[in-house]
Amino acid sequence: MNHDRTTAGLARKAASRQGTVRRWTDRVATGVITAGGWAVIVGVLGIFVYLLIEVMPLVASVSWKELTAVHTGALEPARDTPRPVGVGIDDYRVVGYVLRGGELTFYALPSGTPIPLDAMPDFDQGANEAITAVSHMPGKSPVYGLGTSNGRVLPLQITYRVTFEDDVRTVVPVVTASEPIDAVPTAEPVARLAYRETDAGTIVAALTGSGRLFLTKITETATGLFERDPPLGDFLPFPLGEGLGEGARETVGTELTGDGVSAVAVLHLDRAGDRLVGGTTDGRLLSWDVRDLQRPRFTGTSAVGDPVTALASLIGDRSLVVGTASGTVAVWMAMTDPAAGGEPRLQKIRDFAPHDGAVVAIAPSLRDKGFLTADAIGGVAIHYSTSHQTLLTIPGHGAPVLAAALAPKNNGAIVIHDDGRLITYDVENDHPEVTFSSLFLPVLYEGYNEPLPIWQSTGGSDAFEPKFGMWPLVFGTLKGTIYAMLLATPIAVFGAIYTAMFMRPAMRAVVKPAVETMEAFPTVILGFLAGLWLAPLLENVFPAVVAMFVVLPLVIVVACVGWQLLPSQLTRPSGTMHAPGAPCDQGTELAACVLVLGGTVWVCLQGNQQIEAWFFDSNYKHWLLSTFGVGYDQRNALVIAFAMGMAVIPTIFSISEDALSNVPRHLIAGSLALGATSWQTLTKLVIVSASPGLFSALMIGLGRVVGETMIVLMATGNTPLLDLNLLNGFRTLSANIAIEMPEAPHGGTLYRLLFFAGLLLFLFTFLVNTLADVVRQRLRVRYGQF
To answer: Nearest 5 degrees, angle CA 525-CA 647-CA 652?
Structure first.
C-alpha cells in the first residue's frame, strides 16, 4: 500500500513538473511569437516613419528672416530715368556691395560695417561725364556696364578671392575693369542699357534720351582686363591702358529703327547676346535677332497690356520674366505655333502673384528657375517658374526698391531701397520645384510647345530645367505589373489547378518542389538573361512570337477536342474526378500536351521568316511603324512580361496549389457522388472554396511584381514613357530609385523625391495588401459553409 502511494506521489510530482515545463514553454513560445509580431509591426512602422521624415522637407514652406539692415546714406533725388544702382552678395554671404553711380561700396555682413575703399578705377572720365545707366550681367562674378552722359559704357567686374588660414575663411573682393566702349556715336547720354560679355565678344544695346537705340559689338584678341589683388576691398586707381595685350579691337555698330523703338522703357539682352528684347511704355515686347549685328532682324511684337518696367532672363535664357507698372509678374517663352509654323514668338505661359506696386527689379537665380521681384513700395517676392508658385512674399514699407539680388546659393537676398536702407535676408528655400501639380500633372517645360508629364532629373548644363513628373514612373510601374500579371496569372493558376486536381501523386511530388525552387532563383540573373539573351532573341523571332499568341490557343482547343475523340484504350481516362492526388491516367495527357505545345512552338520558330513575309511585308519593324506608327525597342514591355512573369509564377503557383489542395476531400467526393461532372465540381466547388487562397496568391504576386527592381532595371531600357505600347520600354518607381540614388546629392530635391517614390511603393503595397485581406476575409466568411 505504501509503495503504491509512493508511486502515485512520484507520478503526480512528475506530472506537475511536466505541466510546469509545458506552461513555461507555452509562455516562452507565446512571448517570442508576440515579440516577433510586434517587431514586425514596429519595423514596418519604422520604415514608414523614416520615409516620411525624409519626404516631409519637400512640403515645408519657405521661411525668411532679416539679417542686416544698414543705412547707406540718402540717394540723390529721383529723375526721369532709373537711378544707376546695383547690389550683390558673395557665395558665403559675408561681403555685400552697393554700386551707386560711379561709387562702389563693400560691406561686411551681417554687421553691415562698410569696408573702406579708394576711388573707382580711372576710366579717363571727363569732368562733366556722369553715370546715367547701369546694366547688370548676373553671375558668381557679376559684370556691370555703366552708361555715361557722354554715350560711353564702362565695363566693370566684381569677383571674390577666398582664402583659408588657420581654418579661418577670408573673402576679399577684387574689382576688374576693361576699356570703355563708345556705345552712342552721337555722344548722347545713355538712358537705358543692356550689356553682355560673351565668348564671341561684348554686346551693348544703348537707348538714348531722345529714343534712339544703338547696338555695338566689340571683338578683341586681347583680354582687356585689369585685375587688382589688393588687401580687403581696396583697389587703386590705374592708367587705363595698362595690362592690355597686343591684338586688334574690332567694333561693329548699328542703329535699330522702327515702330515702337522710341517707346522702349527697358532693354534686355540674353546671355549669348543673340536676342534683344525691349519693353515699351505702351505695354509691348519688341524682339530682335541680333546674331548678325550688321543685319539685325526684327522678329515680332507681343502684347503685354501694361507698361513694361522690368525684364530678366532665367538661367538658360529660354524664359523671360516680365514685370509691369501694375505689379503683374509673368514668365514668357519663345514658342512656335505647331499649326502656323514660322518664327518663334514670345508667349506668356505663367502668371504669378502680383505686387501692390510697379515691379522695378527682377533678379534671376544663378542655380535654378527661381527669381526675385521687387516693387515700388518696397515689397519683395520670390517665385519659381517650373512649379508656377510664389514661394515667399516680404511686405514693403513704402520706400521703393532700387536694386535687388539673390545670393548665388539661393539661400539669401540683398535689397537696397530708395531711402538708402540696405537689407539682407536669410532664405530657406530648399525644394522650390516640388508641388502636387509639378509632380503629377502636365507641366509646360522650356523647349516644349505643350504641357507634358516628364521625368528627367539631370541634364548636361547648369541651365537644365529639372523635370520631376512622377506620373511616367507610376505609369511604368503599372504597365509592367499589368503585362507581367497577364502572362503569369493564367499559367500559374491553371498549372496549380492541374497539379492539385489531376496530376499523379508521384509526378506532383516532383513538379511542385521544382516550381517552388524556381522562386528562390535570383532576379538579377533573370534580369541579366532577359536583357542580354531574351531581348535580342525576341527581336529576331518576333513574327513567330506573334504567331504563337494566335496559334497556340487554337491548337490547344483542337488538341483537347481531339483527345476526347480518341479511343479509351489510348487515353485511359478515369471518367470521374478524384480527391487531390488520385490519378486520372498514367501521364499520357501531360506527355501529349507537352508534345503538342512544343511542336507548335517549333513550327512557329521554323516559319519565322515566312510568317514575316506573309503578314509583315518582310520587315515587321517597318510594317509596325508605317501601319500603326509604333516603333520596336529591343528592351520592351514584352520582354518584361516574359521575364517578370517567370519570376512571379512560382509564387502564385505555390500558394494557389496549397489553397486548392486544402479543399476537403469529402466535399469533392460528395459532389461527384451526387452526379456532378468533374468540370462542375471544379468550377462550382473547388475553385469557390479555394477562392480566398487564390485571391491571396494573386495579391502576393502583384506585390512582388510592383516592387521588382533588377529585372526591370536590366531589361526595360528605363525610358520613362507614357505609352501602353507593348513594344517600347518604360521605367518603374523601384528601378528609378536604383538608377538615380547613386547620383542624387544628399538632402537635395532629387534625393528626397526618390524617398517619395519609395513611400509611394510602400503605400501602394500596403493598400493592396489591406484590400486583399479584406476581400479574403469576406470570401472566407461567404464560403465558410463549404
So the answer is: 160
> Does residue 110 have a cis bond before it (omega within 30 degrees)?
yes
Residue type, 255: E
Round to whole Å and give the CA distance between 84 and 403. 9
- Structure confidence at residue 127 as a pLDDT band (50, 70, 90): low
Confidence of residue 3 (pLDDT cuts 50, 70, 90): low
Grid cell at residue 508 = 506532383
As a whole number of angstroms, the distance between CA 698 and CA 657 comes to: 12
For 48, what's the count of Cα atoms within 13 Å in the CB-facing half-sphere?
11
Give the C-alpha distances (Å, rounded to integers) separating 511 from 157, 522, 572, 648, 653. Answer: 79, 20, 22, 16, 11
Sorted by sequence, the CB contacts under 8 Å of residue 451 that are 6+ apart come out as 441, 442, 443, 444
**What is the model's pLDDT at position 730?**
93
pLDDT digits (tens, 9 = 90+) for 596-637: 999 999 999 999 999 999 999 999 999 999 999 888 999 999
H helix runs in 369-504, sequence order: 436-440, 471-501
Could you give the CA distance from residue 21 to residue 26 in angstroms, rounded to a whole number? Answer: 8
* 489: Cβ contacts below 8 Å, ≥ 6 apart: 652, 698, 701
* Grid coordinates given for 655: 500558394
R_g (Cα) of the chain, nearest Å: 38
Query: Per the structure block, which three cell numbers stand in for 99?
Result: 554700386
The number of residues making up the chain comes to 786
CB atoms within 10 A of CB 213: 24
The Cβ of residue 679 has, within 10 Å, a number of other Cβ atoms equal to 9
Tell me how far apart the alpha carbons of residues 440 and 202 are, in angstroms, rounded to a whole number: 43
Q: H-helix or E-strand containing 24? A: helix 2-55
Contact 449/335 with Cβ under 8 angstroms?
Answer: yes
**d(Cα 425, Cα 110) in Å, to the nearest integer?**
10
- Torsions phi, psi of 507, nearest 5? -70, -35
Q: Mean pLDDT over residues 221-238, rounded?
A: 39
Element (H, E) at 509: helix 505-518
Q: What are phi and psi of 758, to 5 degrees?
A: -65, -40
Q: What is the largest CA-CA distance in the chain?
A: 140
C-alpha separations of 276 from 135, 270, 323, 361, 373 in Å:
14, 7, 17, 18, 21
Least confident of 93-97, 340-344, 374-378, 727-731: 340-344
